Amino acid sequence: MSIETLPLLEVGGGPFELGRQQGEGARPQIVNALARYREVIPKAVQLSWEASLREARKFLPYAEEAFPKSVDELRGLAQGSGVSFEEVWTLNCYEGLTEVRQQVWGCTCLAVRDDRTADGHVLLAHNEDWNSVDRDSVYLVRAEPEDGPPFLGMTYGPALVNIGLNAEGIGVAINSVYPTDGRVGVPRILCSRAVLEARTIGQAIRACVPKLRAGGYSYLLADAYGELYCVETSATTHDITYGEEGWLAHTNHYLSPKMQPLEEPGTYSSSNVRLNRARRLLRAQLGAVTVESLQALLRDHVNYPNSICVHEDPEDPVHEREMTLASLVMDLTEGVMWAAPGPPCEGDYVAFRL
Questions:
Q1: Which of 66, 136, 173, 285 could cross-link to 126 by cystine, CB 3.0-4.6 Å?
Q2: Does one domain contain both 71 and 115?
Q3: Looking at the structure, do residues 63 and 176 belong to the same domain, yes or no?
């Protein structure tokens, strides 16, 4: 087992300053990510890099109206990293640039209420599965905003922090889903970033569903009181599921009958296998779930390489090679994030506190 850990940046101030400090601290990751995506985007989304920049501009007015602070944050990130705002903006619009799907990307998320864990803590777990070109671009950010709760989260390259927890005990993990109603609008990553500004679970839910959004994630939300919600969204509608049984799990296909008719046709075999495996492993732990048992679950290799712990398949084209980039277990009661570089079977989880 290696002792490699994810880099941690400390930032603080207003939105532009938060971004500027993130840009300065993560300049190598940002520059490398942009260089790689200039090659990946034409293959992955069937648009030239220049055409992608033009397409992404269409999303900006919607974002400036819905989440102006996040746009300021990205302007600061561009300045701090010494790259153009246009390029930074384009990668934050990546999932909305086209409706053409190359394959179903993974992510596995779980939430467990306090009365289902061994120590009475609320836990939220997430494997971040994405293109392996981002393997060296992942880092953590601990932020002290001047006008919002402190937060600790994960991101990569020039993307906004969009998975993590804040000092109000709110945590968010996300899954990409594949609806057919995508449009130009508010990029979904800005919605997830806004959850980290929430002071209540109700505010967190509302952040997921702004008007005129471009598309949607499935958001797994939890708070330190043990309130668990899955908010499945698309560009035009959403559905909310409450964690009645004290736990929730989600992968990359819709579970709500309301949302399923919007789903792009496909087998979603990897997503179904990961979901059923995660549910089985989690059910076996209920009442005695620990940080360590969730870490073991996130390292599971059933259906390898498309397992919960995803490994790169060298036979896939470069722009379709998926892997677990980072693995997180968040203790919302204590305000601690256990993070491992991915795939987590190859590394150690290290504790980071708010």
A1: 173
A2: no
A3: no
Is there a contact between 218 and 238 (Cβ–Cβ < 8 Å)? no
Say how many Å lie between the first and final Cα of the chain, rounded: 26
Per-residue pLDDT of the chain in tens (354 residues, 90 and over written 9): 345 799 999 999 999 999 999 999 999 999 999 999 999 888 888 889 999 999 999 999 999 999 999 999 999 999 999 999 999 999 999 999 875 455 567 899 999 999 999 999 999 999 999 999 999 999 999 999 999 999 999 999 999 999 999 999 999 999 999 999 999 999 999 999 999 999 999 999 999 999 999 999 999 999 999 999 999 999 999 999 999 999 999 999 999 999 999 998 888 999 999 999 999 999 999 999 999 999 999 999 999 999 999 999 888 888 788 999 999 999 999 999 999 998 999 999 999 999
H or E element in which residue 156 lies = strand 151-156
Last residue of a domain, one of 35, 64, 96: 96
* Residue 102 included in any domain: no
Same-domain pairing of 79 and 111: no
The enclosing domain of 152 has a CATH number of: 3.60.60.10
Domain of residue 295: give its range.
Answer: 107-353
DSSP, residue by residue, 244-269: TTSEEEE-SS--STTTGGGBPSS--H
Of 65, 96, 127, at which residue does a domain stop?
96
